[in-house]
Amino acid sequence: MRYLHRHTDSRQDVRAWLPWAKSVVVVASNYHQKPRNAARTKHQGQIAMYARGEDYHVVLREKLEQLVQKTRERIDIPFQSRICVDTSAIIERELAAAAGIGWIGKNTMVLHQSLGSFFFLGTVITDLALVPDTPVPDHCGTCTRCLDACPTDAFPKPYVMDASRCISYLTIEHRDDIEPELSDKIGDWLFGCDDCQTVCPYNRDAPETTESRFQTEGAPNLDDIQRWDPATYRQAVRGKATERAKLHMWQRNAEIVRRNLKKT
Q: Which of these, 159, 161, 81, lies nearest to 122 by C-alpha position?
């Protein structure tokens, strides 16, 4: 993910990108879904919860555009704004922690005491001088469930992730073959992974999303994925975050999942 090494100045201070910025408004949008107890077969893998519905970049941007418009209607002060949804060179996670959304947990996710961690982050950068919220303290305590649950040992220590071992990175960002030592531990994850989140106590009673566009869609059949051509691939991922993985990566992942499921 070489893009993370670019624009490091704006990742440290958004004013390096937008000199007029005075405040950053951070929002969290819940995408949590309760288990549906859907029948699973050895011909179907799992897709991380965040990517099962419509593309969150589009949905959350629409919501933030509405927020900006309603703000303009309700205050008699002209202001500049820039909406960011996981596509700009800023660090949403650290900004969310600074804004009081939650704290950064041992699995490097932002955690909220009521919402858990299954939520998207979006930001509105503005030249309005707003009173900042207070950051919340770390509530992870001595719990290490997220670290212990990781199949690939992607956490060398609490609050530190080795992305090169993370299943989400391997299935979504890694373009080449996945070494056997890691592919054997991917299990049935076709796209992304939720293991370190599902075991978190703060997600146990997290509310279910009310946004229908984030609702669960079934994972594609492994045999169908292997038969995809460029046209059927585009149709399958159009309008979804799953478009991030290219056709050859989907087929690579499907073959890994098929192999792992045969062992169970």
A: 81
Other C-beta atoms lying within 10 Å of the C-beta of residue 168? 21
Cβ(192)–Cβ(241) below 8 Å: no
Q: What is the DSSP string of 150-164?
A: -TT---SBTTB--GG
What is the Cα gyration radius of the chain? Answer: 19
Enumerate the active-site residues: 86
If you search the block for the tokens 């045999």, which residue do you land on? 223
Helices (H) and strands (E) in the chain, counts: 11, 7
Assign 193 a pLDDT band (cuts: 50, 70, 90): very high
Per residue in 75-122, pLDDT (tens digit) is: 999 999 999 999 888 899 999 999 999 999 999 999 999 999 999 999
Kindly report the pTM of this predicted structure: 0.92
- Angle among Cα 206, 99, 79 to the nearest 5 degrees reads 120
Token pair, residue 90, equals 């800023």
